[in-house]
């Protein structure tokens, strides 16, 4: 979803443009600000893709705002609204890439056309086949695999800074071992039965290479593929800036949230794949890497909904997980990947394929079948132990093969347990999604007169705005903005029935500072003005 911010110190212009674009079917996530300073506050809270701004404003003017935007969001398109006497401003602005301008006198049709062009430019820029190729030239597959192996080596125990420095230099890792890192885990949701292992690895490598381009704007990073086929990023701001626990780190985290959202869109446009991201907002010392990686992966498992294109930010105090071993038998790695990722069809397909290879020509089981049974049983038991599911999925007989009459019964028993685990996971995801949406609804009801922007609501449940918008529609059947409008209308009706507040005061109570905006909204929703509604009620 493209996010656009409208900025003008004249309220009637800002509100008018906001209303015009709100009524168009352009799939825009709209915000407005009445000064350059207020616009900058928005830019510090979330990624913004298009800024439609007056160029001459009191306080921070458009040019100052442009410089601040360029220091954070390089991809952002800036469209300046100008008067006939603003040539000096425009001359400086048009020297900057991604900036265009138009006269305020040109009318709404022209403004809509310029914004539409900017949207198309952004969408086209997300088709990054050429960037993937450039990234492949910068980092070979061999280096990537070596770095992935090294990451697993780092997870095995504490390493000295001197050892890290030598290893980083030899492996081409552009990170500083004396500084902490931010850890992000990506879940590639691409469990395609027809995709070979090589194709899966190629997909993961393509996403990793693509990330090099997005994250390079302000950070140094190491992206690797973990043993489950997922992606892990270790990230430091360029030159180590912003790795404290204060405002600098928060800005880096906001930058990463925005860039990961763009990466998700680019992957969908370029490769038809998507992934979920869980990012730890707390800087991690190298000695903590093993624990933090486990915690972030655990938090991704306990997500709400299916996680498609989710960017979830977590802090240590919000992460709840027990320390369980991640080690599984080597031959079960592919099955573990499907089980961990919720890939039921992939798991069952591979399960049946492995089972069939264990029988001899006469249909009898051999030594491999015995090993396979206990490998899969141990995998399932480890999963049940890790997520403490004993009361929900029984383990009686799991490690006792001779409890069943035949090998077919043995593997049917294992399959039933696996399917129960997939069913349970799906149920838990749905319940968590429902709980998250109910929390958003409650917040809306309790704060109907306050800021109910998508960015604000997303912060309530610590999701990224795009994921919240999609999840709310998926769970509720209506768009989030439509639900907010419904709540506002019902609240306004209740207040108008009481005949205590003035109509303008009712508008403020439901989030409309400008009386004319409230009147226009209410009439569009009900067919009558607030005054007409009150008169009908009190006749």
TrEMBL record:
Q: Which InterPro entries match?
A: CheY-like_superfamily, Homeodomain-like_sf, HTH_AraC, HTH_AraC-typ_CS, Sig_transdc_resp-reg_receiver, Tscrpt_reg_AraC-type_HTH
Tell me the CDD domains matching this sequence.
Answer: REC_YesN-like
Please list the residue ranges annotated as the Response regulatory domain: 3-119
Originating species: Paenibacillus aceris
Arranged from A to Z, the UniProt key words for this protein are: DNA-binding, Phosphoprotein, Transcription, Transcription regulation
Q: Which residues carry this modification: 4-aspartylphosphate?
A: 54
Q: Which PROSITE patterns match?
A: HTH_ARAC_FAMILY_1, HTH_ARAC_FAMILY_2, RESPONSE_REGULATORY
Name of this chain's protein: Two-component system response regulator YesN
SUPFAM superfamilies in the cross-refs: CheY-like, Homeodomain-like
Q: Which residues form the HTH araC/xylS-type domain?
A: 438-536
């Amino acid at each position: 979803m493209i996010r656009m911010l409208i900025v003008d110190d004249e309220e009637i212009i800002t509100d008018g443009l906001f209303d015009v674009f709100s009524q168009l079917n352009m799939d825009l996530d709209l915000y407005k600000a009445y000064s350059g300073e207020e616009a900058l506050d928005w830019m510090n809270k979330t990624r913004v893709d298009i800024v439609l701004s007056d160029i001459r404003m009191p306080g921070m003017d458009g040019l100052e705002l442009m410089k601040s935007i360029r220091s954070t969001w390089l991809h952002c398109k800036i469209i300046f609204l100008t008067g006939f006497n603003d040539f000096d401003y425009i001359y400086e602005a048009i020297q900057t890439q991604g900036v265009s301008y138009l006269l305020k006198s040109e009318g709404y049709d022209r403004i809509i056309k310029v914004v539409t062009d900017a949207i198309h430019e952004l969408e086209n820029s997300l088709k990054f086949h050429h960037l993937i190729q450039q990234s492949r030239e910068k980092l070979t597959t061999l280096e990537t695999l070596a770095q992935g192996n090294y990451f697993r080596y780092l997870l095995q125990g504490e390493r000295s800074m001197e050892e890290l420095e030598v290893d980083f230099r030899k492996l081409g890792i552009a990170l500083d071992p004396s500084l902490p890192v931010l850890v992000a885990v990506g879940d590639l949701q691409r469990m395609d039965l027809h995709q070979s292992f090589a194709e899966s690895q190629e997909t993961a490598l393509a996403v990793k290479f693509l990330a090099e381009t997005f994250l390079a704007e302000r950070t140094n990073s190491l992206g690797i593929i973990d043993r489950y086929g997922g992606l892990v990023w270790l990230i430091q701001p360029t030159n180590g800036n912003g790795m404290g626990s204060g405002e600098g780190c928060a800005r880096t985290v906001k930058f990463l949230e925005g860039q990961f959202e763009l990466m998700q869109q680019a992957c969908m446009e370029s490769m038809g794949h998507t992934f979920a991201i869980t990012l730890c907002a707390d800087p991690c010392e190298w000695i903590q890497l093993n624990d933090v990686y486990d915690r972030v992966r655990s938090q991704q498992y306990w997500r709400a909904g299916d996680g498609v294109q989710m960017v979830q930010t977590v802090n240590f105090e919000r992460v709840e997980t027990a320390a369980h071993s991640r080690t599984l038998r080597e031959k079960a790695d592919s099955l573990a990947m499907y089980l961990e990722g919720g890939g039921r069809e992939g798991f069952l397909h591979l399960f049946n394929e492995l089972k069939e290879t264990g029988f001899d020509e006469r249909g009898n089981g051999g030594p491999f079948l015995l090993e396979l049974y206990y490998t899969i049983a141990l995998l399932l038991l480890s999963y049940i132990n890790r997520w403490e599911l004993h009361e929900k999925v029984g383990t009686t007989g799991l490690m006792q093969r001779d409890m069943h009459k035949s090998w077919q019964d043995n593997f049917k028993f294992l399959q039933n347990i696996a399917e129960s685990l997939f069913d349970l996971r799906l149920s838990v995801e749905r319940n968590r999604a429902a709980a998250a949406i109910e929390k958003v609804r409650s917040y809306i009801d309790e704060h109907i007169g306050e800021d109910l922007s998508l960015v604000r609501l997303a912060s309530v449940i610590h999701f990224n705005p795009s994921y919240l918008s999609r999840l709310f529609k998926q769970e509720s059947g209506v768009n989030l903005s439509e639900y907010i409008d419904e709540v506002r209308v019902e609240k306004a009706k209740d207040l108008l029935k009481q005949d205590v507040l003035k109509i303008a005061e009712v508008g403020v109570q439901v989030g409309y500072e400008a009386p004319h905006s409230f009147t226009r909204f209410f009439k569009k929703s009900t067919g009558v003005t607030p005054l007409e509604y009150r008169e009908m009620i009190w006749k």
